[in-house]
Structures are given as C-alpha cells and as structure tokens.
C-alpha cells in the first residue's frame, strides 16, 4: 500500500480529504519511525515497528491540533486519548528517545494547512478544556499573586508536591528524596546513591556535632534527618504542608526531635540566623532567576562568618536562552519554574559577597536517578494509579522519562556550587584543598 506522499501531491483544484495517518505523514519530515494508528482506521509507519502510537479519539486530535508541540501531545497522552505501545506508561523513555532521534516535523504550506483543516473539520479545531492535571497558564496565575510572591509560590509548590505522600513513597523509594543522587559507580542502588549525596553535602559543608544547619526547601526532611543523626541542629523549611507533616513524623519516629525541625514555611519567614551552614537542594529552580540576588543575599544574612553555603540545582548548559520552562513542564510539573546556566548562579552568589570555592556538574547522575524513579513507578504502577489516578501517574512517567533524556543529551544539567561567607578581613579559614572525597 502506497503512502499519501507517494500517491500524489495535494491538487490545487479539488484536494482529496486526508485520513489522520496521512496528515501525520505529511507533517513528519521523513520516514515515520514507529507504527502510527488512528481511530479512523488509518495507519502509518512500519508494521513491524517495535514501538507504536495510537490516537484513540477525536478529542486527542483536538488536543494535538490546538496546542502543537509538547503541550498538545502531553494533553492527549495524559487524558488517555493518545497511547504509546511497546513500552509502559510509567516509563515511555524508549519511545521518546526514538522520537528525539528519528522524528522531525516540517512546516506545511498554506495550501496543505487548508486541506488539513478541511479534512479534520472545524469542530475538531475548536479549543477544549485541558485535562484536570494542568495548571492555569502563566497569564491567568496573576489571581494567585505576582510571580514568585509568597502566595503564588505556595500555590506552585502545592500543585507539584501536595499530591500524595504515599505516591511519592512509591516513586522515590525509602529515602523520600526528590533530588539528584550522587553515584560513585553505576552499580550503586538508588538508596546508596542518595545516601552518598547527603554525605557529600554534609562533608562539603564541613558539618560536625553541635553545628547549626538551615536546609531551605527541605522536602520530606531527608537532609535534615541525615545531619541530625550526626548531632547537627537543623531547621528545615518547605512550602508543602504534606511534606512538612511527613517530615515531622519521621523526625519524631527516629527520636530526633531535640535536634531537628521541619517547618511548613516560606524560607523568607525564617527569623533565626548565625548558622554554620545553609543547604539549598533543589529549590533555586522555583524562586525565579530575577530573585537570585535577593535569595542569595538572604542566605548570606543567615550565615556566620566562615559559614558555608551549598546550592544544588538543575541548570541549563548556557546562560543565553529564556529561563522559563516549556509548555508541558510549566503547566503540568513546575508552574513558574525557571532554569538558567550555572554561570548566572555563580555570578549572583559572588555579587552578594559570598566567595565561590567549588562547583561540579552531576548531569549524568540525574539521568541515572530518573531511570530508577521511572522503574519504581512502573513496579508500583497499580498502587500509584490507585493513589493519584492514571492521568497524574502518566504525567509523572512522561515528565521523568523526558527529563532523563534531557540530562543525557545535555539539554539540562545539575550543578552543586559551594561558597563561603568571609569575615571582615576576607578570611575563610578553610583548608587549602577540597576536604571531601
């Protein structure tokens, strides 16, 4: 059977109506690398392909047509109107990899667009409500406060983190750590690598028994408890109420209440100061690039002279492009999230008067971490769906698999930046060479 492209070019007089698969073929620049099937019975791509994509409903076509790109595909996939075959919805990594490597889309001519429109019909081209997992667009979030105001930040964090602690236990594993692990080798388990990450942060900050640590954006308190087990007095802050409640219970269960506390609080409301160290593990992505000077200035104000600050965050590989996230990430994963290169982070840390002493990129480590989270989601799929619904579970599978690919391809990176607050004579009182392994 010949394809539409092989049969004819669109005739200017009476162009033939197109099937869904023919439209897909026209828009694809080159061969379709997987089997595509549509609800109208049409197909494209090799019959023996390992992976497939099934467009199941007209609603899925509307999602794809009214929001071209990652947002439209996410809407169709999250709603169940678009299925991927040959892989599990908890880990569509392999299909995303094939699409990244072998599928490109071209800009059709005006005549082609007209024929596609006529073939689909106006009814399918009218925008409809997105799946319920989608956050409001940026321009409508103003009702929740100005960008990165306390109110709006709280709403954004709640959207992502107040999903279900049980769901996170399924996906993250016993460490309840939702940040990049640090692998000594690829044979390490996720739990070993997460423990190693906390050891690395602890050692970089030169913490010892009796020291005071502020952990900003502490999540479920894993860093808080790691330090408290070693005699450090710790305050953690998170904007997620569910995280704070889970963390406080875990602290009590371990008998660490005399040393550790996790507050449901904006970091800007922390009044204590003179800390020996501040850790910020996975928070900078949420505060907004324009707020870096204020944030790092706040951190400096909380440190004693000679105190150390470690910033651990996702970054871009350069400092030139827009910091704002793409449509899918902004609407389904991290509303108002922003990323920029490590150069901007280092510059703004330096500009508030902290001295940067070390930085390293753990990009490949995050790809390994995400692969393990996807495996956990697949292994616990039924429990995850029962806890949060299939749509939300699909969001997570798509997001984590896509992020894994992004870290592998150097679309995003993960940097740890270590800095120190000098005394009034410019002294740091630190060893001459790195003191951690």
From TrEMBL:
SUPFAM superfamilies: S-adenosyl-L-methionine-dependent methyltransferases. Residues 167-419 form the Polyketide synthase-like methyltransferase domain. It is an enzyme of class 2 (transferase). Its EC number is 2.1.1.-. Keywords: Lipid metabolism, Methyltransferase, S-adenosyl-L-methionine, Transferase. One of its GO terms (molecular function) is methyltransferase activity. The keyword Transmembrane helix does not apply. It holds the Pfam family CMAS. GO terms for biological process: methylation. The keyword Lipid metabolism applies. Belongs to the CFA/CMAS family. This is Class I SAM-dependent methyltransferase. It comes from Antrihabitans spumae.
């Amino acid at each position: 059977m010949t394809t539409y492209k092989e049969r004819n070019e669109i005739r200017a007089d009476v162009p033939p109506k197109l099937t869904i698969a023919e439209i897909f073929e026209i828009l694809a620049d080159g061969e379709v690398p997987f089997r595509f099937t549509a609800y109208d019975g049409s197909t494209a791509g090799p019959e023996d392909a390992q992976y497939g994509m099934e467009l199941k409903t007209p609603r899925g076509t509307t999602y794809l047509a009214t929001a071209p790109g990652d947002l439209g595909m996410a809407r169709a996939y999250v709603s169940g109107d678009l299925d991927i075959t040959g892989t599990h919805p908890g880990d569509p990594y392999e299909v995303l990899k094939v699409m990244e490597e072998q599928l490109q889309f071209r800009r059709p001519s005006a005549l082609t667009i007209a024929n596609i429109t006529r073939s689909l019909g106006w009814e399918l081209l009218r925008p409809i409500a997105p799946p319920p997992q989608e956050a409001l667009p940026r321009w409508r979030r103003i009702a929740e406060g100005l960008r990165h105001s306390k109110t709006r930040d709280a709403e954004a964090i709640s959207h992502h983190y107040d999903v279900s602690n049980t769901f996170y236990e399924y996906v993250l594993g016993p460490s309840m750590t939702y940040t990049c692990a640090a692998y000594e080798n690829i044979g390490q388990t996720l739990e070993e690598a997460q423990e190693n990450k906390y050891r690395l942060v602890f050692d970089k900050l030169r913490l010892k028994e009796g020291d005071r640590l502020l952990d900003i954006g502490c999540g479920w308190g894993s860093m808080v408890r790691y330090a408290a087990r070693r005699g450090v007095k710790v305050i953690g802050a998170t904007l997620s109420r569910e995280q704070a409640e889970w963390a406080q219970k875990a602290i009590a269960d371990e008998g660490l209440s005399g040393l550790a506390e996790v507050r449901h609080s904006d970091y800007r409301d922390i009044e204590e100061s003179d800390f020996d160290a501040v850790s910020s593990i996975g928070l900078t992505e949420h505060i907004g690039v324009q707020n870096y000077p204020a944030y790092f200035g706040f951190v400096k104000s909380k440190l004693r002279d000679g105190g150390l600050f470690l910033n651990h965050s996702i970054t871009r590989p350069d400092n030139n492009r827009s910091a704002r996230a793409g449509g899918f990430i902004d609407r389904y994963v991290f509303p108002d999230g922003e990323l920029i290169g490590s150069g901007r982070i280092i510059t703004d840390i330096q500009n508030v008067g902290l001295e940067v002493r070390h930085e390293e990129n753990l990009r490949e480590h995050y790809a390994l971490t995400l692969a393990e989270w996807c495996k956990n989601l697949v292994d616990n799929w039924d429990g995850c769906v029962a806890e949060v619904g299939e749509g939300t579970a699909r969001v997570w599978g798509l997001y984590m698999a896509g992020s894994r690919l992004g870290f592998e391809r150097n679309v995003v990176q993960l940097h740890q930046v270590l800095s120190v607050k000098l005394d009034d004579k410019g002294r740091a009182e630190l060893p001459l060479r790195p003191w951690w392994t």
